[in-house]
Please model this.
Amino acid sequence: MPLPENFVDAVYIDPGLDRYRGNPLIEALPPIMDLQALKVKLTGKLTFNPQDCYEKGHLRAHQISALLDDFFQPLSIHKQLEEKISVMIRGGYVGRNIADGSLNKRMQEGYQRIMSGATNDFRFAQSNSTAKSLSLIGCSGSGKSSTINRILATYPQAIYHQEYNFVQLTYLRIECPSDGSLKSLCLNFFREVDRTLSTGYEEKYARKRHSTEVLLSLMGQVATQRALGVLVIDEIQRLTLKRSISKEAMLEFFVALVNVIGVPVIMVGTPKARSIFEMELQAGRRSAGFGSLFWEPVQREPGRVDPKTGKPRKTEWQAFTDKLWQYQWLTHRDEVLSEEIRDCWFELSQGVLDIVVKLFVLAQMRAISTGLERITVKLLRTVYEQELKPVHPMLDALRRGDPELIVKYSDLQLPAMDKRLLELRKRIDERQAEKEIDPAFNGNDKALRLYNMLQAMGCESELLQPLIENAFKQHPNLSLPELSKLILEWYSEPPKPKKAQIEKMKPSNWHTLPSEDLRFKFSQAEKGRLYDDLMYGKELFDVPSWLKKVG
Model:
């Protein structure tokens, strides 16, 4: 009988440590990752083809939208979290082994707890639990959940051990219910196990009116039967919504969760849940825990120098934004990220990774829909003001560094993001339709792509069109690289003398001109501030330096 799609057959490898050897539950796990393997496994699977920058707007919009799901750049905190999860899963299996009978012993103890009503645990000899707990606290959008999901995805969720006729559940991720009920949280556990393993625990246990204590013992029995490696509980802050539950009761619940279930538990939440775990720290009651990992936004640190080479080393903010900047599908894109744009990007996003990426995506969509076709400081500020209003309170709290405000606004999210992207795509389609009313080159897609590519290289649009039309007429079978070489040769030939003509363009379209054009700079400057944005020796004659030279 074939295995379900989400199951894999166990393949045993040497785990590399004596502590882990001889335990099939550990030997069936993937190898422990080093830094290089982590980068390969966690980095998002995105491809970028420079030619795609000259495709039609509606096609580029799909490429840009993919950044929201597929872009992921590992940082030091991701490595730290992966190491903790790796140790927790493997360490939690040390006391549970299907080869030496210790797992059956744990199941027998769990059965005895249930039969005793979960009130007389002390009567039974307990095996030493190696389970640990970890609380992960950070603002919404900082990347907690997405990082955990990517790390867990490096493990097969269900492993079938044919020799022992046993199914191992390596991880389970559940969310706290929106009503903040501890009992509903327990039922969510059974529901997720059923979804993963096609079992019937929820129907079996939900019918009876079990207390939270009994449900916890039942969770422990199921977790032991299925050799659960780690339990991840997300959105912990929702438990604070139910006023009938005291902080002390929640603390007792979390301590019991690790002690009774005997499985490593990771609790994920926003700073609203921080008070619960601070209480736990003050009481000194963590059960062999890893403590709390506070997931801060990426910081804008000062530049560093490598002591060995003496060369500058990129900070994490620089590395992250440089990597993301590569994924621009804009015809007038700047290849190098300027420090002015980088600083503005940080000021607006405060290093919250979700906001960093969404601001970048929305800016590109807006750049295509308006014809700007590049990212500027003015565009970033416009997108921030118009598209990210729901998260302004949270980001303002981060700018002020006010702990009380941060807790108050820490779980704000961007609603209807998909709807906003669809609206921008509609604008892009409308702009594309306007262009195609009188299609250039009689709808020749190859010629249009060549035109956009050469225009992006700085060739004047008025000269290009007749050259391209002539090239296709004389050499219809040449490839794009061959055509571009030919046209550039023609373009560089000295033009025949003719009367100088001034290119006229409405001020409302100045933002579509090349970046070096003073009219473009005027379109991006604040009213009356153009002179401040111009540089001596570049757009302005360097009078001060000239005066020094002449004395």
